From TrEMBL:
Pfam families: ABC_tran (PF00005), TOBE_3 (PF12857). PROSITE patterns: ABC_TRANSPORTER_1, ABC_TRANSPORTER_2. Its EC number is 7.6.2.9. Residues 3-233 form the ABC transporter domain. The lineage of its organism: Bacteria, Bacillati, Actinomycetota, Actinomycetes, Micromonosporales. GO terms for cellular component: ATP-binding cassette (ABC) transporter complex. This is ABC-type quaternary amine transporter. The gene is cysA. PANTHER family: SPERMIDINE/PUTRESCINE IMPORT ATP-BINDING PROTEIN POTA (PTHR42781), SPERMIDINE_PUTRESCINE IMPORT ATP-BINDING PROTEIN POTA (PTHR42781:SF4). It comes from the Bacteria.
Length: 327
């Protein structure tokens, strides 16, 4: 169900956590609140859930003013970074907890728990304690517990932040597939740009309590509204007075190319399928990202004299020209 956040502000003493925030979250969509630590994204999520109270503004869920409703009456599922599992209860009982306190019939609870444990691939662990699960399995259990009460909105606060990189990657792929199956309106907080770009339908970039930009991952990456968004969503480098993506630069070994400036390679680093080349250009060090095949075709070495330019197709695009020229 849709969520409307209207003129929401929140202070903690002299600290402004949120400053007149307005966001519209469409029904059935997976939306990421992305930003640096302390930017206000978790505070906004907790206000949506009813765990914090805004100083001003209102929250609407499914067209109903939920600003003064208790968390229990908002019908939201909330998943924290650190699981908040009941250690003495089995996996099945953890998932059933919300249904039991709502006094649902036992047969209904048993059927719902079985269905959810199958959905999150934990059916074989139903009788285990949370301590007998891996971190990724505990987080899937927490998601199943949140979904058990059939919330209209699912809120996730840095759900994979306590996990290692490989498990995080596996779980965010799984979260995307899960969302496509259950179609519940989902909002998740993250400071991981790759996580947001890979999983979300829409990203809300929040910094210092303000919304910097809202849009699809492609729109934010290709046409950022300002320097902060561009720097926060992916790698950047400077060429002259331009801010540009390293993969949008070209290295040339010839001379006299339009828009190219001379430089000398000072460092070459391979990172997986990418080759990162650092070029000294006047008083700058410019990073250029190449594919392995591009790198090999140019026969580059530390000390090679090269020319650097923004790829013509990028320089000629309306969105990128606007961003680059704004720096």
């Amino acid at each position: 169900m849709s969520i409307e956040i209207v003129n929401v502000s929140k202070r903690f003493g002299d600290f402004v956590a949120l400053d007149n925030v307005n966001v519209s979250i469409p029904a059935g969509q997976l939306t990421a609140l992305l930003g640096p630590s302390g930017g206000g994204k978790s505070t906004l999520l907790r206000i949506i859930a009813g765990l914090e109270t805004a100083d001003s503004g209102r929250i609407e869920i499914e067209g109903v003013d939920a600003t003064k409703l208790s968390p229990q009456k908002r019908n939201v599922g909330f998943v924290f970074q650190h699981y908040a599992a009941f250690k003495h209860l089995s996996v099945a009982r953890n998932v059933a907890f919300g249904l039991e306190i709502r006094k649902r019939p036992k047969d209904e609870i048993r059927e719902r728990v079985h269905e959810l444990l199958k959905l999150v691939h934990l059916a074989q662990f139903a009788d285990r304690l949370p301590s007998q699960l891996s971190g990724g399995q505990r987080q899937r259990m927490a998601l199943a517990r949140a979904l058990a009460v059939q919330p209209t909105v699912l809120l996730l606060d840095e759900p994979f932040g306590a996990l290692d990189a490989k498990v995080r990657k596996e779980l965010r792929d799984w979260l995307r597939r899960l969302h496509d199956e259950v179609h519940v309106t989902t909002v998740f907080v993250t400071h991981d740009q790759e996580e947001a770009l890979e999983v979300a339908d829409e990203i809300v970039v929040i910094n210092e309590g303000r919304v910097e930009q809202i849009g699809s991952p492609d729109a934010l990456y290709d046409t950022p509204a300002n320097d902060f968004v561009m720097r926060f969503l992916g790698p950047v480098t400077e060429l002259g007075d331009r801010l540009v993506r390293p993969h949008d630069l070209q290295l040339l070994t010839g001379g006299g190319e339009s828009g190219a400036v001379p430089g000398r390679i000072t460092r070459i680093t391979r990172v997986g399928f990418e080759i990162r080349v650092v070029v000294a250009v006047r008083d700058q060090f410019v990073t250029v990202t190449l594919t392995r095949n591009e790198f090999l075709s140019l026969d580059l070495h530390v000390g090679s004299e090269v020319q650097v330019r923004v790829a013509p197709e990028v320089a000629n695009s309306v969105g990128q020209s606007r961003v680059l020229g704004a720096v």
